[in-house]
Amino acid sequence: MSSNHPWIPTSVIGSWAFPGWYEKFIHESQARPAEVGPFDREEAVRDAVRLAVDDQLRAGLDRITDGEMQRVDFNLGFYDYLTGLEAIPKGRFLGPPAHDQRAKYRAMEPLAAPQGLGTLSEYRRFREVTGASAKVPVPGPFTLAGCISGGEIYADRRSVTEALIPIVNAELRSLSQAGVDFLQLDEPSFACHPADADYFLDVVSRTVEGVKSYVGMHLCFGNYRARAVGWRSYRPLFPQIGKACVQQLSLEFASREMAEVELLRELPSSMDVAVGLVDVKNTWVEPPALIAERLRLVLRHIEPERVSVTPDCGFSQTARHVAVAKAAAMVQGVRAVRKELGLGE
Predict the structure, then answer these.
(1) What is the C-alpha to C-alpha distance for residues 86 and 108, in angstroms, rounded to an integer?
(2) Using CA atoms, how far apart are residues 22 and 70, in angstroms rounded to an integer?
(3) What is the DSSP letter of 254?
(4) pLDDT tens digits, 304-314
(5) What is the CA radius of gyration of the chain?
(6) For residue 102, is it left (φ>0), alpha (ψ between -120 and 50) or beta?
(7) Which alpha helices (H) appear in the chain, and where do they start and end?
(8) Which residue segments constitute the domains of the chain, with CATH numbers given?
(9) CA distances for 192 relative to 188, 221, 228, angstroms
(10) How far is it, in rounded angstroms, from Cα 115 to Cα 18?
């Protein structure tokens, strides 16, 4: 990690809570696109990014993102950049929101992204707002493949993943060349489908090949509408996950009441960890003292110089006032432990 950061730096996973007016603007512009022009959209996006940056900096976070204000969910908007897809009609609209209501696609021809996945323009817009330390999350190929049926083009999810690996790799390389020093590969599907860890390691290796930036990999259990989508255990991925060709693993612990934190001992000394100490799936704001207690537990198993602190997942499914309060409490808890350890506040 950069020497410009304090020990045990704080960050977010990626997304920030959308301001209410921005959520309303998005829905209305989708429902009545003829009433919203390109300048209106650009103004709204830029204002939303500024608010996300301001919220994070006011909370005291050491490394921030653009809040993913320029995306639809953490990965759904990326399908708009892929050619060769057609939308599959949703099978359920009514009842409790869940993963089966997400957008799905079918491959009609080999996948391509002739204009990239859009993250480079996102980063440039973000840098017009702030020079603060930042990271850029990018969804991984296996997770992206989860919403794509191969149709008559690809035999299965692995085949779709193979087609996406060079696309995601090109995106990561472009961001690295543009000066992004911290990239995050979002692969929550790895944790939800842990049967073949060696295959996942190969996918990760080829996805980050040639990328010069520091790379973290986010492994959670799903957070669409604050719901998990798989068995919430990292045990099947250990100890193999420690061989991944990344410098950091982001793991969720808060929503699981710190279960399996002892697995951190099984990681090699070269692997850093971002520990999720804030539960984004509830609206209760953890007090700083609890965050500090959770962090002390983590430090029984891993050295502080290898640790960053984040929420379990992104804040996109969280009310903004709750996200602001949770982030501020997280920062206060971490600063208390830094002080105890003589690492500064």
Answers:
(1) 7
(2) 11
(3) G
(4) 999 999 999 99
(5) 19
(6) beta
(7) 20-31, 38-59, 119-127, 141-145, 157-177, 188-192, 197-207, 288-298, 320-340
(8) 20-90+97-340 (3.20.20.210)
(9) 7, 6, 9
(10) 26
With 0-12 / 13-18 / 19 or more C-beta atoms within 10 angstroms meaning exposed / middle / buried, residue 131 is: exposed
Cβ distance 220 to 191 under 8 Å?
A: yes
Closest CA to 168 of 185, 149, 189, 156: 185
Structure tokens at 342: 């003589």
CA angle at 313 for the pair 266 and 72, rounded to the nearest 5°: 140
| Assigned token pair, 330 | 């997280």
**Amino acid identity of 292?**
A
Tokens found for residue 76 = 């759904």
pLDDT digits (tens, 9 = 90+) for 189-239: 777 777 788 889 999 999 999 999 999 999 987 667 666 667 788 998 899
d(CA 6, CA 20): 33
Cis omega (within 30 of 0) for bond into 239: yes
For the cut 60, the answer to whether the pLDDT of residue 75 exceeds it is no
Burial class (CB in 10 A: 0-12, 13-18, 19+), 188: buried
Long-range contacts at 240-245 (CB < 8 A, ≥ 24 apart)? 240/197, 240/198, 240/201, 241/197, 241/200, 241/201, 241/267, 242/266, 242/267, 242/268, 242/271, 243/201, 243/268, 244/200, 244/201, 244/204, 244/205, 244/217, 244/271, 245/201, 245/204, 245/205, 245/208, 245/215
| Closest to 226 (Cα-Cα) out of 66, 98, 60 | 98
The confidence score (pLDDT) of residue 71 equals 81
Q: How far apart are CA 193 and CA 202, in angstroms?
A: 15
pTM of the full structure: 0.92
Copy the structure tokens of residue 207: 């996805």
